[in-house]
């Protein structure tokens, strides 16, 4: 006996398929959880090995997913390896195809499906998970269509990637986990703003080879934390904040982000208003101290190495002649 001709399993975007898809989406909305999906942007792709040595994440959009790992985290769990304590927790999320397409990630040469390497922020554990595998046929052609993706994810190992999504809950991960230097500043004026750029040198920000991003500023202790560092900072140079500029709302009023207003002195409509522009003398810093890693032993290793190696020797491979 042939199949029932009143049900079409082989068409494209048929009413039957749309009905099943809508039911799946409604089920995930009812029993799922909201997460932030963060697409990866490749910065420096190695064309030989086919890997991206430097990545950044500049976008994050909220979407509902279903937690398929109902018995807890999967994977190898937590164990001690040759490289110390490792956490290999895995989790599987189910996301509706139509809802992912609605996120509109097609721009930037992206396909209409999740990609390995993208991140998902899981709010229940307050952690980032990296997509390791995308299963696109987990529900095998129900009513002739594919309604969901299964995303097999593993706990993300942060490696100094830039995270600038505009969402504080996500952006603070970079400030808390990436390499940074704490500077003790001396005399000066102004207030450093988190997220703004700082630099050293009298030639201005555009021509400076020493730059960084403000991670934290404590005005009472004059302690400035800087990350995303380019170049080598010097204790003998002044620390400047690159002032950002904003166009005025009208001829007298500047509309701030919190919907309050500010009236600068002598302004005209469309004129750029410069904020802060702090400048302080650099007193001291130690680039070997990694404040974000409690187990880092850079200073201890450097101290012991200095007592073993003689860096005054001009030719360490000679037999004492020095040549």
The figure for the number of domains is: 2
Helix content: 10-25%
How many separate helices? 4
What shape does the CA trace take? elongated
This entry's quaternary arrangement is single chain
According to DSSP, the number of beta strands is 22
Rounded to an integer in angstroms, the radius of gyration calculated over CA atoms is: 27 Å
Task: Please trace the helix and strand order, writing H or E for each element.
Answer: HEEEEEEEEHEEEEHEEEEEEEEEEH
Which regions have little confidence, pLDDT < 50, spanning 5+ residues?
264-274
Could you describe the 3D structure shown?
Helix content is 14%, strand content 37%. It has 4 helices and 22 strands. A 6-stranded antiparallel beta barrel has the order 1-6-8-11-10-9. Strands 13-16-15-14-17-22 form a 6-stranded antiparallel barrel. It is elongated. Pfam families: T4_neck-protein. This is Neck protein. It comes from marine metagenome.
């Amino acid at each position: 006996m042939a199949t029932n001709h009143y049900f079409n399993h082989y068409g494209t975007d048929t009413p039957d398929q749309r009905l099943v898809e809508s039911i799946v989406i409604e089920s995930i909305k009812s029993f799922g959880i909201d997460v932030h999906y963060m697409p990866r942007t490749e910065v420096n792709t190695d064309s030989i090995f086919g890997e991206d040595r430097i990545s950044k994440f500049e976008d994050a959009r909220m979407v509902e997913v279903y937690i398929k790992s109902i018995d807890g985290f999967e994977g190898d769990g937590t164990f001690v390896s040759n490289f110390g304590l490792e956490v290999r927790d895995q989790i599987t999320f189910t996301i509706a195809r139509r809802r992912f397409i609605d996120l509109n990630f097609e721009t930037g040469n992206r396909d209409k499906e999740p990609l390995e390497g993208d991140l998902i922020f899981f709010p229940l554990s307050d952690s980032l998970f990296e997509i390791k595998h995308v299963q696109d046929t987990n529900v095998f052609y129900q009513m002739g269509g594919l309604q969901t993706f299964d995303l097999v994810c593993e706990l993300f190992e942060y490696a100094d990637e830039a995270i600038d999504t505009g969402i504080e809950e996500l952006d603070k991960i970079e400030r808390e986990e990436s390499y940074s230097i704490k500077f003790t500043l001396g005399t000066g004026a102004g207030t450093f703003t988190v997220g703004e750029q700082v630099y050293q040198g009298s030639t201005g920000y555009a021509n400076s080879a020493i730059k960084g991003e403000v991670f934290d500023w404590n005005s009472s202790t004059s302690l400035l934390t800087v990350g995303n560092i380019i170049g080598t900072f010097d204790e003998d140079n002044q620390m400047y904040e690159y002032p950002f500029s904003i166009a005025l709302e009208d001829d007298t009023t500047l509309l701030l982000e919190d919907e309050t207003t500010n009236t600068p002195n002598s302004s005209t409509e469309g004129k750029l208003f410069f904020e802060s522009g702090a400048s302080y003398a650099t007193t001291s810093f130690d680039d070997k101290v990694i404040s974000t890693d409690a187990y880092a032993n850079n200073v201890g290793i450097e101290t012991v190495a200095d007592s073993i190696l003689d860096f005054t020797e001009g030719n360490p491979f000679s037999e004492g002649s020095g040549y």
